[in-house]
Amino acid sequence: QQKEYKNEVKMRRGYLKHVTPRAAGEPPGDVVCRNSKKFDLNLLPDMDEDQ
Question: How far apart are CA 13 and CA 44, in angstroms?
Answer without folding.
Answer: 14
